[in-house]
UniProtKB/TrEMBL annotation:
Biological classification of the source: Eukaryota, Metazoa, Chordata, Craniata, Vertebrata
Record-linked Gene3D superfamilies: Nucleic acid-binding proteins
Highest taxon listed in the record's lineage: Eukaryota
Gene source species: Crotophaga sulcirostris
Protein name, as recorded: RADX protein
MF-aspect GO terms: single-stranded DNA binding
Pfam families assigned: RADX (PF17659)
Chain coiled-coil ranges: none
Amino acid sequence: SKLISLGQLEMTWRSRVHFNPLLVRVLHKSRLRYYGKPEKKMDMPYQAYFEVADGSGMMSMVLWNSLCPEWYNSIKVGTVLLLDQYAIKTSYPFKTQPTPGDSQMKRFATIEISLNVRDPPTQIRIVPEEMVKPEWGLPEVKYRFITRSELDDLPNNHSCDVIGLVTFVGRAERARKREHGEDFWLYRWAHAIDGTSDQPFILELFATSQPHVFEHIHPMTYLVCTQMRVVRDLTQNPSSTIYLTTSNESQIFITGWHKGQPYTKDTKVKNFIQWTKTQNEDDQMKKTVIGGYYPFPRPPNNFLKY
């Protein structure tokens, strides 16, 4: 069929009524958002953002309402989609923006692709990876993996991906989203080592839309976290309070979920796997901890400083 590129779409969308099919690869995936309110009667008030790309650049794609339970888990980072009968809307200006792995990629930020059950009823097809042809010119998924030894030099809010061997995982804790609200964020702390430093990655992992992974992080698992943000407290000793926190587009993977993921081709991931083969499992097991209360960043030693 006659395809249209994202670049052509951005230039001509105002003058079109019907849009040709799109062939794109998913580069980023946000957590699922529930926007239901008691006074609004909606069956499935869900929404999820994806960043999709073809040879011309990258654009946001929004999955709405009942399409979310049907498609959210099937559409992964790296999935190739053929889209037909989609709608085009001007972009929502306050949405979070993931940091692309390829800094040269053009971003089309004025419009977004909207996928709905009706008006018009979108047709979504997943193209199996073995059927994807090089001549389609779809970009590969690229990552920004860092090692623990590189972390201390990174600025606050820098975006990166990490892989490590879990040595500590805390219990799940809750924090209020708003001071007097009834909604909570669920999160847990974890430590992971990669052999490049004496210090572990300190990870603040909020529950993403992957409960099957979040609940099963345990010591000695290989943990991959993508689209993490660097947090450093610049008021105190910056190196002692540096940690990584999840963003809206973070994906978390543990042993058992790595097979077939695009990051398995990354050099730093391969280096980490080589390092783990040199480690004695029993020695590492003795250093692992699970559960308990983990106050971080640590309070000062005396009350005057506090």
